[in-house]
């Protein structure tokens, strides 16, 4: 059965790999699974046809036969469970890899997304200057803990897994801020993820869509 995912018709990041469909593309590439992409405009994301797939009007979604999924973590987990390459064979190691998917999305990503909100959506608000250092401190705290756990290992728990895929994708959002560079082991960890051929194929696919669209202005 053909796998179809949805992606932004025009990604807000201009194809830099930060849109969440890149995470799903990467997982499919790691698993060696062919897929098709249906591009969705901002307007179409709010229409009934898309809302039946994603009740919150976002991307990505995943369709395969009668199965339709939304939420990046759930989609990546589904791909990892169904296909080899993203979860270890040992049951305990698999459980730990799944734990890192949740940790990336529930513990590490929220303050990073808060930083984006403070800088770009609330930058003109009177409380923004006071709030920004608090958010940055929370991020540094999380990165310090993660860096201490990773140590000098290549990946979070043995070999590369879906947990690393999601964690690297989350940390990539920090690169423009410069905060990631304060933690050399994590910066190197992210670079290892980006160097994987499957990531490079996923990144190139998303970039190609955005590069093919004329920029308004």
Explain this structure.
- By secondary structure, this protein is an alpha+beta fold.
- The chain folds into two domains: 3-85 and 199-211, 3-Layer(aba) Sandwich (Glutaredoxin); 91-196, Glutathione S-transferase Yfyf (Class Pi), Chain A, domain 2.
- It contains eight helices and four strands; from the N terminus they run βαβαββαααααα.
- Strand 3 (61-64) and strand 4 (67-70) form a beta hairpin.
- Helix 4 (91-121) packs parallel to helix 6 and helix 6 crosses helix 7.
Query: How big a fraction of the residues is strand?
Result: 5-15%
Structural class: alpha+beta
Overall, the morphology is globular
N to C succession of SSEs: EHEHEEHHHHHH
Low-confidence segments, ≥5 residues, pLDDT <50? none
Main sheet properties: 4 strands, mixed
Overall pLDDT level: 91
Got a strand count? Answer: 4
Number of domains: 2
How large is the radius of gyration? 18 Å
CATH 2nd-level architecture of the largest domain: Up-down Bundle
Read across the widest sheet, the strand sequence of neighbours is 2-1-3-4
How many helical stretches? 8
């Amino acid at each position: 059965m053909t796998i179809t995912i949805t992606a932004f018709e025009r990604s807000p990041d201009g194809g830099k790999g930060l849109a969440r469909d890149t995470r799903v593309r990467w997982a499919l590439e790691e698993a060696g699974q062919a897929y098709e992409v249906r591009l969705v405009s901002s307007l179409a994301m709010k229409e009934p046809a898309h809302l039946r797939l994603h009740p919150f009007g976002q991307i990505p979604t995943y369709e395969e036969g009668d199965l339709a999924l939304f939420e990046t973590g759930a989609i990546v987990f589904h791909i990892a469970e169904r296909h080899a390459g993203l979860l270890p064979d040992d049951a305990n190691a698999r459980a730990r890899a799944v734990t890192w998917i949740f940790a990336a999305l529930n513990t590490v990503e929220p303050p990073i997304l808060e930083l984006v909100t403070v800088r770009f959506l609330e930058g003109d608000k009177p409380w923004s200057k006071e709030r920004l250092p608090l958010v940055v401190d929370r991020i540094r705290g999380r990165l310090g803990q993660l860096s201490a756990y990773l140590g000098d290992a290549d990946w979070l728990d043995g070999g590369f897994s879906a947990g690393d895929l999601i964690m690297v994708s989350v940390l990539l959002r920090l690169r423009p801020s410069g905060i990631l560079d304060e933690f050399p082991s994590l910066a190197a960890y992210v670079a290892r993820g980006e160097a994987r051929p499957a990531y490079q194929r996923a990144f190139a696919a998303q970039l190609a869509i955005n590069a093919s669209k004329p920029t308004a202005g």
